[in-house]
Amino acid sequence: MVGVDRDMTEEDERLIPTNIERPTMFIGSSAEGLVVARAVKAHLESDIEVDIWDEGVFQLNQSSLDSLLHAASLYDFAVLVLTPDDLLKSRGKRYKAARDNVVFEHGLFLGRLGPRRAFIMCEESVKVLSDFAGITISRFTKPVKGNLRDAVANACDQIRKSIKESLHYAELGFYPSTVLAIGYFENFISKIFTSLLQKSYVVKVNGKEQTNLQFQSFTFTIVIPDSLGFVEKANLELTVKIKELQQIVVHSITRDFPFYVRADFRGEKELHLYDVPTTLLSSRKAIELLLSKPFIGQSWDQEKLERREIRNFRLALESLLKKNFPDHLGTTIRLEGPECMNSKA
């Protein structure tokens, strides 16, 4: 897991920072617990994309297990609602128990997402497994009369707080985005940015040697795509052409690094450098392998997974930048969306 110590700011008061795509959540329950699942969704859906199990998660011509395994790969978070649907006899005593398939689903999501991202919403009277000792369980009391949404409010606030904390970290999970961000930072960003701070020479502009050309100041913008299609070679080349960017090569001790750039070298020689992390193509390939699509075009699942990868890549990269270049993040070095390339310098 990649994380960074941070002071609370006004932005932290929001569950989801404004520059990050909303995360996704699966809510599972028994049929009898659907009313609770819907109350939970009503509390959380303002900040999170929430799908309840009966909202198309279980696909036609696919087993329930296959659908659940697919969902565990698709969502960022999961809430499993445990309601008193069965009677359990244990050591001579009878207890109210949750439906066994819901308990199984929690275990499945817990194994895939981890304890920071798979939650239990439990009605107070339900007996839970001893294996859950040490796991935070959000409990509520179902009212005989009254508003169920109010009854689950405190439990939802506990889950919201845990989600808020989790969103400050990039998870090492099934998909490659965190590892890609670490490699991109270590092998490219850290080396080239150090060279830029030392005012290294720009050795080539549009393929021509410029060995005596120096710059006085620069801004370095990492363009985080809004979709993985943006980093495909053909789309990127078209963007460079439309935006009329130049290509430069900055020399460092280890090797030369190419960039796309807008700069006026006749004036104060201020460089406006842009780099698109095309390493994210690996995430697209991994997602396509997972989904094994029998058709051409992007499915809803692929779109959701790609957004998840982009969000996690940005979080991991931002954490690394805050740790290593805290005085420059947001000023000299920036993380922006593709819209940053719309206006000419």
Short recap of the structure:
The chain is α/β, with parallel strands linked by helices and 345 residues long.
Can you lay out the helices and strands and say which pair or pack?
Blueprint: E1 24-28, H1 34-44, E2 49-52, H2 64-74, E3 77-82, E4 86-90, E5 93-97, H3 100-113, E6 118-123, E7 126-127, E8 137-140, H4 148-151, H5 153-166, H6 177-197, E9 202-205, E10 208-209, E11 217-223, H7 233-242, E12 246-251, E13 256-263, E14 270-275, H8 281-291, H9 300-324, E15 333-336
Parallel strand pairs: 1-2, 1-3, 3-6, 5-7, 6-8, 11-14, 11-15
Antiparallel strand pairs: 4-5, 9-10, 9-12, 12-13, 13-14
Helix pairs in contact: 2-3, 6-9, 8-9
Describe the structure.
This protein has 2 domains: 24-166, Toll/interleukin-1 receptor homology (TIR) domain (Rossmann fold, 3-Layer(aba) Sandwich); 177-341, no CATH class. Helix 2 packs parallel to helix 3 (100-113), helix 6 packs parallel to helix 9 and helix 8 packs antiparallel against helix 9. The chain has 9 helices and 15 strands. The protein is elongated. The longest helix has 25 residues, at 300-324. The protein is an alpha/beta fold. The model is unreliable at 1-13 (pLDDT under 50).
